[in-house]
Design goal:
Elements (H helix, E strand, L loop, with lengths): L7 H11 L3 E2 L1 E7 L4 E7 L2 E6 L2 E8 L3 H9 L1 E6 L5 H8 L14 E3 L2 E3 L5 E13 L2 E13 L8 E4 L2 E4 L5
Antiparallel strand pairs: 1-11, 2-3, 2-6, 4-5, 5-10, 6-9, 7-8, 9-10, 11-12
């Protein structure tokens, strides 16, 4: 057994999770105090329930997006396709925060930013939260879904520290 105090367990978990393929999404919200859009890249996004329709996103409590979701009480999960790789860097690099919404074709639904070219955009109102360690889990009831029309479904993934492509097995 590894001693958690040494940090070895955290490093082993990080190495293990790099082997688990995950989706790449951009989570957005409208920050009411700044009156501007805020967003971040997320791979910790999962459906919770179909009744009620709900999603979960894990957000680092130190991030600007965390405070903005808390204030706004809602968020949008934009499921990215492989054609959106260029959006990942601005939304995951703090020094590029001011240029995040300059790339891509963003639109707004009741001040909520979403990416019409995303495979899907899932609009959620925060229903429950759970703080655990460095992150807070936001469970949101989904109140709208926008599916990209005419777009080829080629989901953008993340694995072993790099981009991955997901495809159906025959």
């Amino acid at each position: 057994m590894t001693d958690p105090a040494t940090g070895d367990l955290a490093q082993q978990l990080r190495s293990a999770m790099r082997r688990l393929p995950g989706p790449v999404s951009i989570v957005t919200t409208h920050d009411p105090s700044l009156d501007e859009p805020v967003g971040m890249v997320a791979s910790a996004v999962i459906p919770v329930s179909m009744e009620p329709a709900s999603m979960l996103v894990a957000v680092n409590r130190q991030s600007q997006c965390h405070a903005s979701i808390e204030q706004a009480g809602r968020f949008c999960i934009n499921l990215l396709g492989t054609g959106h790789r260029d959006l990942v860097e601005p939304f995951s690099t703090p020094s590029m925060r001011d240029s995040r919404f300059a790339s891509g074709r963003w639109e707004y639904a009741d001040t909520m930013p979403y990416l019409p070219g995303a495979m899907a955009s899932l609009f959620c109102r925060v229903e429950a939260t759970l703080v655990h360690g460095s992150h807070e889990l936001f469970v949101g009831n989904t109140y709208d879904v926008k599916l990209a029309e005419g777009e080829e479904l080629d989901p953008l993934g993340w694995m072993e520290g790099g981009f991955a492509r997901f495809g159906a097995l025959d």
